[in-house]
């Protein structure tokens, strides 16, 4: 088991800005509004992990398998070999989310899906879409303690959250329980959108962590870390 799970790739400094990787057993929460870049960040993390020989399960409420593959290749994150050799397990849950209003047992179903949690890193984008109809305080606590047990055997759990989809009380529980808490900000400037990663909490970092990291998304390039971060 790795001490730190690096997501370094040669063409950007994202891993370096975030302490050189996520420590083993980290519970990571990435929070942002609709269109804030949560999926792109998880796609970049996924590609970085698998490039560093770390196995990943990515559960997505956003894209079909075909849509995910197309999106990754449009960012020049070639993932087909990793899907084929099993390093990456991609699970689209769009149909489940669309039918979720009638399903109030979503939290229990998630915890009982053992094959989701075999890999070193488990990413759920977005957890709030998945549990918004079934999460109450008690179930959310159960889910957090379940994730913490997985952290205890070294697995890294990364959740993205759209705060408007959950009550403030439940969102706060995830924030206070995590080891690494990141918010994504975006604001229009002139004819572009300025995006920033804000690191609110980072426990156990092995290297220096930037507090505010500017980034942009470019076709055929992927995530680009801005040299001068905008606060």
From TrEMBL:
Q: Which SUPFAM superfamilies did the record assign?
A: P-loop containing nucleoside triphosphate hydrolases
Q: Does the keyword Transmembrane helix apply?
A: no
Recorded GO molecular functions are:
ATP binding
**Where are the bilayer-spanning segments?**
none
Q: Which UniProt keywords apply?
A: ATP-binding, Cell projection, Cilium, Flagellum, Nucleotide-binding
The AAA+ ATPase domain sits at 24-186
For this protein, the record's InterPro entries field holds: AAA+_ATPase, KaiC-like_dom, P-loop_NTPase
Q: Does the keyword Nucleotide-binding apply?
A: yes
Protein name per the record: Putative ATPase involved in flagella biogenesis
What is the species listed in this Swiss-Prot or TrEMBL entry? Methanomethylovorans hollandica (strain DSM 15978 / NBRC 107637 / DMS1)
């Amino acid at each position: 088991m790795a001490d730190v799970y690096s997501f370094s790739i040669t063409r950007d400094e994202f891993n370096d800005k975030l302490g050189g990787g996520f420590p083993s057993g980290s519970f990571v929460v990435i929070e942002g509004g609709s269109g804030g870049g949560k999926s792109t960040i998880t796609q970049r993390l996924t590609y970085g992990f698998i490039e560093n020989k770390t196995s990943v399960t990515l559960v997505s409420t956003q894209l079909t398998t075909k849509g995910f593959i197309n999106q990754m290749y449009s960012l020049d994150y070639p993932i087909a070999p990793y899907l084929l050799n099993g390093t990456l397990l991609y699970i689209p849950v769009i149909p489940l989310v669309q039918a979720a209003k009638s399903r109030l047992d979503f939290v229990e179903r998630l915890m009982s899906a053992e094959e989701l949690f075999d890999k070193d890193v488990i990413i759920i984008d977005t957890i709030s879409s998945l549990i918004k109809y079934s999460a109450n305080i008690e179930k959310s606590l159960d889910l957090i303690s379940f994730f913490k047990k997985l952290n205890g055997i070294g697995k890294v759990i990364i959740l993205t959250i759209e705060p408007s989809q959950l009550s403030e009380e439940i969102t706060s529980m995830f924030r206070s329980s995590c080891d690494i808490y990141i918010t994504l900000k975006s604001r229009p400037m002139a004819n572009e959108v300025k995006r920033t990663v804000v690191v609110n909490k980072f426990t156990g970092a092995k290297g220096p962590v930037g507090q505010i990291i500017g980034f942009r998304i470019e076709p055929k390039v992927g995530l680009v870390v801005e040299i001068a971060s905008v606060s």
